[in-house]
Amino acid sequence: MRSRGQHIELGDVTPHNIKQLKRLNQVVFPVSYNDKFYKDVLEVGELAKLAYYNDIVVGAVCCRVDQTEDSRRLYIMTLGCLAPYRRLRIGTVMLNHVLKICEEDGNFDNVFLHVQINNEGAIRFYQKFGFEIIETKKHYYKRIEPADAHVLQKTFGRGITIERPINNQEQQEDMS
Ligand SMILES: CC(C)(COP(=O)(O)OP(=O)(O)OC[C@H]1O[C@@H](n2cnc3c(N)ncnc32)[C@H](O)[C@@H]1OP(=O)(O)O)[C@@H](O)C(=O)NCCC(=O)NCCS
């Protein structure tokens, strides 16, 4: 995606750049992820991506498939970008990538994630894309406060639509 001289693109996670992913997640998230997390990330293909802003790694998304007898869901384990690069649509590019995978696959019931209850920015971000709080889990996190997490979920019913965040102008146009 290129606009106003800004260039955002996604790239694969490989053994050569996995340390950049680790470093980024350490800075962006209050939770630390173990070696198994990173070992698994190297196996998930398109479900893990680094985000580049003008060729610099500034964000990453890591997902996994959550399959049970009853359902097939996509779980967003981490999706984040460095604080100085927020509100530049980097999160949007990463989330649209995830939603596109769901659309192309066509067999996911929903996509979901956990978010700390005080993370209002992330909640607003996901709500823009049609995610809803379906549950709040008490004491979900072991080492951070607040320890409670919302489960945000976007359900796929009659076909998936990749949505862009609605800006105020579009909202007003919709209402007129
Ligand atoms: C949540 C996060 C990924 C959003 O990424 P981002 O690149 O800043 O998001 P975008 O620029 O694509 O935002 C798209 C829209 O989402 C909404 N949004 C994003 N951040 C928001 C915030 N802090 N407050 C309110 N709305 C927000 C806005 O509507 C925004 O559009 P606008 O900037 O035109 O108003 C980013 O804040 C982040 O990395 N947070 C820390 C990690 C995290 O908490 N991840 C979520 C759990 S996995």
Characteristics of this structure?
176 residues; alpha+beta; Aminopeptidase; 8 strands; binds coenzyme A; N-term/lysine_N-AcTrnsfr; cytoplasm; transferase; GNAT_dom; acyltransferase
Structural features, described:
Keywords: Acyltransferase, Cytoplasm, Transferase. GO terms for molecular function: protein N-terminal-methionine acetyltransferase activity. Residues 8-157 form the N-acetyltransferase domain. Pfam families: Acetyltransf_1. It is found in: Cytoplasm. The chain has 176 residues and is an alpha+beta fold. The protein has helices spanning 18-28, 35-41, 90-105, 120-128, 168-175; strands spanning 2-3, 6-12, 48-53, 56-67, 72-81, 110-116, 132-137, 149-155. A hairpin with a 2-residue loop joins strand 1 (2-3) and strand 2. The model is unreliable at 170-176 (pLDDT under 50). The protein has a single domain (8-155), classed as Gcn5-related N-acetyltransferase (GNAT) (Aminopeptidase, 3-Layer(aba) Sandwich). 29% of the residues lie in helices and 32% in strands. The radius of gyration is 16 Å and the shape is globular. Strands 1-2-3-4-5-6-8-7 form an 8-stranded mixed β-sheet, with helices on both faces. The chain is built from 5 helices and 8 strands; from the N terminus they run ββααβββαβαββα. The chain binds coenzyme A.
